[in-house]
Amino acid sequence: MTDTPPRSAPRPASATPWWRARWVLPAVLAVLVVVFILENRDLVTIRLLIPVVVMPQWAALTITLVIGLVIGLMLRRRRR
């Protein structure tokens, strides 16, 4: 007689695999990012005090988002 470890109970067939549930939200967000970029490809002129910059609208909006996130994180750390 050999020592065999006890078998674990099999998963029910209706259970969602962990990899599918884990990757649904990132996949949806990636699709939304691609749609966002494709819909906002027009060039925009941005003037910040003296320099004038011409860039795609999606890049300008992404830079604005990143700046806002950095400011939010800095204010959040300051309150703690």
UniProtKB/TrEMBL annotation:
Domain of life: Bacteria
Keywords: Membrane, Transmembrane, Transmembrane helix
TM helices/strands, residue ranges: 21-38, 58-75
Name of the protein described by the UniProt record: Integral membrane protein
Organism of derivation: Actinomycetospora straminea
